[in-house]
Design goal:
The protein has about 210 residues and is mainly β. The protein has one helix and 17 strands. Strands 1, 2, 3, 5, 6, 8, 10, 12, 14 and 16 form a ten-stranded mixed beta sheet that branches.
Length: about 210
């Protein structure tokens, strides 16, 4: 399906119009030009249709982006959508967001991640190699964190919600700065040794 172009917030966005049982919606495909795009505001709607998805590779390797504002109503961030946006330090995660795809924020420069209330799945390597990512906040609808999701991040404290039932053993591999860990009721406590930093990490508070 070919992408269309729409000018908003000072940028030319590429997008697709798609259809679901609830009607038409928009998938953002990227920007006309990513040069000097420092502060990107994703529109809430285009031509009356709500923005629900960001496609895979949409902003891949956009080295100038520093902040991204995501709209309420967005449900999916596709695989590698912001991969290697090496200057990206700040993203808001709306409560409507349900899925963050594989490597979506791989090798960015995020400092914190405060996830929305409806997030259910964080896919493989979604935030891997964000070495300055120290603070993450998970909410009570989160179900799954897949392999290497937070590999080699600088996370200091981890609180896993009771709703979490699937945590891949490598999800926090290489997170050597973890000082405290709380495991929710949805997981067995023996996940600790193999999951949070592996052999390199021994949190002082469990």
């Amino acid at each position: 399906m070919n992408c269309l172009r729409h000018k908003m917030n000072g940028y030319d966005f590429w997008y697709r119009q798609k259809e679901s049982k609830d009607g038409l919606y928009i998938e953002i495909c990227g920007l006309e030009s990513d040069h000097e795009c420092r502060n990107v505001i994703i529109p809430e709607e285009i031509n009356g249709s709500p923005v629900r998805e960001i496609s895979e590779d949409a902003f891949f390797n956009c080295g100038s982006i520093e902040t991204v504002t995501l709209p309420e109503g967005l449900t999916i961030i596709g695989a590698s959508a912001f991969k290697r946006c090496v200057c990206l330090t700040d993203v808001n995660f709306p409560d409507s967001l349900i899925t963050i795809g594989d490597s979506a924020f791989f090798c960015c420069d995020l400092r914190m991640a405060n996830f929305g209330y409806n997030l259910k799945t964080i896919d493989a390597s979604a935030f891997a190699n964000n070495q300055k990512l120290k603070n993450v906040k998970f909410q009570e609808k989160l179900k799954t964190i897949k392999e290497f999701a937070f590999e080699n991040c600088g996370i200091v404290s981890v609180t896993l919600p009771d709703s979490l039932t699937h945590l891949n053993f490598s999800a926090f591999d290489g997170c050597e700065d973890v000082e405290s860990l709380h495991i929710g009721a949805g997981l067995a406590t023996n996940y600790y040794d193999r999951t949070i930093g592996g052999a390199c990490c021994r949190p002082s508070k469990i």
